[in-house]
């Protein structure tokens, strides 16, 4: 009977997310890895409601070491190509060109010997137009913030000086902060979230703070060459824009 569990560690702002299904072996391996706590809510078919791991499977709790919270939050995530479970990249094995977790590797290897590929579909790269749409949404949101700020401080100086100052502030402070926070915490800006696309490293891991901030400024480079850096995405096999190539990132449909 497959297991599901609730996880909030990596997405405190988004609330709790449902993970699974996991077979017994994978579920137990996960508990033993320390990712599931005594208080983690779990569920499987037949249960009326979600219950703490300590209630459902007390035998697994005893084996759970205390979480390394700081490490967990700092470690970028990657996803097993078979079960889709988030893992830190060093816990995944590269096998036949895919990142696979230890629990799934035997099954995946066995599948390959039988000519069956058990892995999830490969990442679908998001093309130029959907990314253009996401950028448009972000642009509208930022413009609203920009004009709200201009109106809020309009009394402080001549209007053109204020609007110039606010524009500069948006360009060099608000926008990069927005992109970095959203990209690191949610793997997408609000525009990309709305359209179901995500920014990842080419190996499927999440961006670190440095890379997310760097990517914003690399986008400015894509802009100053008459937006040719963006148009490059339309002609690339992985749909990488110039700033994606510089930062080793891709934009993919949420899987
Ligand atoms: Zn797996």
Polypeptide structure, described:
The protein is an alpha+beta fold. It folds into 2 domains: 3-113, no CATH class; 128-253, no CATH class. It is 47% helix and 15% strand. It contains 11 helices and 10 strands. The strands form 4 sheets. A 4-stranded antiparallel sheet has the order 2-1-3-4. The chain has a two-stranded antiparallel sheet with strand order 5-6. Strand 7 and strand 8 form a beta hairpin. Helix 6 packs across helix 7 (159-186) and helix 7 (159-186) packs across helix 9 (209-224). The longest helix is centred in the last third of the chain and has 28 residues, at 159-186. The radius of gyration is 22 Å and the shape is globular. The two termini are 24 Å apart. Bound molecules: zinc ion (ZN). Zinc ion binds at residues 80, 82-83, 85, 101, 103-104.
């Amino acid at each position: 009977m497959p297991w599901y569990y609730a996880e909030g560690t990596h997405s405190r702002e988004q609330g709790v997310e449902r993970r699974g299904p996991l077979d017994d072996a994978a579920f137990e391996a996960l508990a033993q890895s320390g990712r599931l706590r005594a208080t983690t809510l779990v569920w499987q078919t037949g249960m009326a409601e979600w219950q703490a791991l300590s209630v459902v499977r007390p035998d697994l709790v005893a084996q759970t070491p205390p979480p390394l919270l700081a490490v967990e939050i700092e470690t970028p995530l990657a996803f097993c190509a078979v079960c889709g479970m988030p893992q830190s990249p060093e816990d995944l094995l590269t096998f036949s060109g895919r990142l696979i977790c230890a629990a799934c590797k035997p099954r995946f290897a066995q599948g390959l010997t039988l000519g069956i590929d058990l892995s999830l579909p490969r990442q679908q790269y998001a093309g130029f137009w959907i990314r253009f749409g996401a950028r448009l949404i972000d642009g509208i949101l930022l413009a609203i913030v920009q004009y709200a700020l201009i109106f809020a401080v309009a009394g402080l100086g001549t209007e053109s000086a204020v609007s110039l100052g606010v524009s500069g502030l948006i360009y060099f402070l608000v926008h990069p902060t927005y992109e970095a926070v959203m990209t690191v915490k949610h793997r997408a800006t609000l525009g990309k979230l709305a359209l179901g696309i995500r920014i990842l490293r080419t190996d499927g891991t999440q961006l670190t703070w440095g890379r997310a901030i760097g990517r914003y400024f690399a986008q400015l480079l894509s802009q100053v060459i008459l937006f040719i850096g963006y148009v490059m995405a339309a002609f690339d096999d992985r749909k990488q824009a110039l700033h994606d190539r510089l930062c080793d990132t891709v934009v993919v449909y949420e899987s």
